[in-house]
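The instructor's notes for this session suggest beginning with a concrete chain rather than abstract definitions. Hand out the sequence below and ask the class to guess, before any prediction is shown, which regions might be ordered.
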Amino acid sequence: MREVQQVAMRASERKVDLTRHKCFLSYRVTDKDEVEQFLDEFGTEFIPRSVGVTEDDDFIGSDDDEYIKRRIRELYLTDSTVTILLVGSCSWSRKFIDWELSSSLRNDSVNRRNGLLGICLPSAGTPTIPARLKDNWVYKEADSSYALYKEYPDSPATLRSYIERSFAARTEKPALVDNSRPLRATDSAC
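After discussion, reveal the predicted structure:
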């Protein structure tokens, strides 16, 4: 995880632009090489925030969903405004991804919810969309969706437009958020 964070910070530092949004990256660890490539190509278009929950976090053994979501917000999402889920072929099966998305959609007195952007990684083909992302994205109906789900961007400007649209959804579409699904308790086989 630390390697990915270092790649993210180096990419972000290549460009000074005060209009960039702070984005949390969610991904499956086995997609690390593609995540690093994404950061190298597009990391200039946003300010990366912490990248991912690990087994070492203090809330991992908890059965209290609200506590888990609160701790993820406090530790990882505090000053981010958009969560980017890099969707690989098995992202749907990972509990930590579900927890990160649920925490991103949480709106509380300390933190506002994040915009939600799913981007399909090139190696994923036509992946199964993680359930919580699917709950907030309606195929071919952007007006009915809180989240965006897009193919891998073809340019930095394209990614920037996705991030801007996801950021705007926070104030333009809060009524469309569906975060009612219980947190995934375990990983599934992929």
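Then share the key points. The two ends are 21 Å apart (CA to CA). The longest strand covers residues 82-87.
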